[in-house]
């Protein structure tokens, strides 16, 4: 234990997967002191560990979680996921809106998320206010997916070790001492998806995320970012996408320019979250129905299009953007919310 902590602090050598497995075993057996668990969590979050240590950490957790049941019919592509790494400027729930729009376009979506961590309202907070249920098991998620074309997975998709870690550091808040686990969260969720779109707020994580996305246990991943530091695609600034693990993708980074999609000018004020919690749902439904700021609507359509393109439903991104905007305009995404509410 002391050697593991010393290596996390000094970074003289990476912590490999067997040492992480030994740490998780001791945590499960109750053989770790609270102070030691707190020290390891804080060391991971105070200073970004080396790439090899992060890859070994994620690999150890995914190995312990096992394989999820397959989703979709045999021979068809499975659902897709869209999720951000957190951090950067606060925005409204863009990825949740994009997931709903993509599902209304006919793209099966199995979305992961959480309560607010670095944002004002996390996806789970929004879903609760919308009255949309979350699946509490793989069976429930696959049932929701079959019935509605979209499912929102609860915390069961994350390794049990994370819950034990959170309990072990109490009364300290994991949002403070466990920030690293939120950042790498997109690679910790074990879900049966055929592709995922991951927003990267901090470019310093680009190399680490590429390594994580190249691991055999990770589905093909689109890593998205921009100079604004927003962990989603943004309609009014230049964006970049790197497709990792996609056999048909060029390894080069794609540059996406707003003018190429015909997007209108905008600013971060258009993407800002609401300050008043009572306005959360009306604001969200306004954007989802196409009545919000044009930059907010186009940003949601942009991310939904990326999700549809990653799924292979719309190979051409420009065509996918046009379809997403049409889906918003005709109210299909809002009607999907209404159906999900009724089902809940």
TrEMBL record:
InterPro entries: Anthranilate_Pribosyl_Tfrase, Glycosyl_Trfase_fam3, Nuc_phospho_transferase. Pfam families: Glycos_transf_3. One of its GO terms (molecular function) is glycosyltransferase activity. Residues 80-333 form the Glycosyl transferase family domain. Signal peptide: none annotated. It comes from the Bacteria. Keywords: Amino-acid biosynthesis, Aromatic amino acid biosynthesis, Glycosyltransferase, Transferase, Tryptophan biosynthesis. SUPFAM superfamilies: Nucleoside phosphorylase/phosphoribosyltransferase catalytic domain. This is Anthranilate phosphoribosyltransferase. It comes from Actinomadura meridiana.
């Amino acid at each position: 234990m002391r050697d593991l902590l010393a290596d996390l602090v000094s970074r003289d050598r990476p912590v490999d997967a067997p040492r992480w497995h030994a740490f998780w075993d001791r945590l499960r057996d109750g053989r770790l002191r609270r102070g030691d668990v707190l020290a390891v969590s804080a060391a991971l979050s105070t200073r970004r560990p080396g790439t090899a240590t992060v890859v070994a950490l994620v690999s150890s957790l995914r190995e312990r979680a096992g394989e999820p049941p397959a989703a979709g019919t045999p021979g068809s592509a499975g659902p897709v996921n869209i999720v951000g790494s957190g951090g950067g400027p606060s925005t409204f729930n863009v990825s949740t809106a994009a997931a709903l729009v993509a599902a209304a376009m006919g793209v099966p979506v199995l979305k992961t998320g959480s309560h607010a961590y670095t944002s004002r309202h996390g996806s789970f907070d929004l879903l609760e206010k919308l009255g949309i249920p979350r699946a509490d098991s793989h069976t429930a998620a696959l049932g929701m997916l079959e019935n509605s074309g979209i499912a929102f997975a609860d915390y069961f998709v994350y390794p049990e070790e994370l819950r034990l870690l959170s309990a072990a550091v109490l009364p300290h808040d994991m949002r403070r001492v466990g920030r690293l686990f939120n950042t790498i969260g997109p690679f910790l969720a074990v879900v049966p998806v055929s592709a995922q779109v991951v927003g990267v707020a901090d470019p310093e994580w680009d190399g680490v995320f590429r390594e994580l996305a190249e691991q055999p246990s990770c589905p093909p991943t689109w890593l998205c970012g921009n100079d604004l530091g927003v962990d989603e695609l943004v309609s009014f600034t230049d964006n970049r996408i790197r497709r990792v693990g996609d056999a048909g993708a060029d390894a080069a980074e794609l540059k996406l320019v707003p003018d190429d999609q015909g997007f209108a000018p905008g600013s971060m004020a258009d993407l800002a979250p609401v300050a008043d919690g009572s306005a959360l749902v009306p604001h969200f439904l306004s954007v989802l129905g196409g009545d919000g700021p044009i930059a907010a609507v186009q940003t949601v359509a942009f991310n939904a299009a990326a999700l549809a393109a990653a799924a292979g439903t719309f190979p051409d991104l420009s065509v996918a953007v046009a379809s997403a905007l049409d889906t918003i305009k005709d109210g299909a995404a809002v009607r999907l919310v209404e159906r999900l509410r009724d089902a809940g």
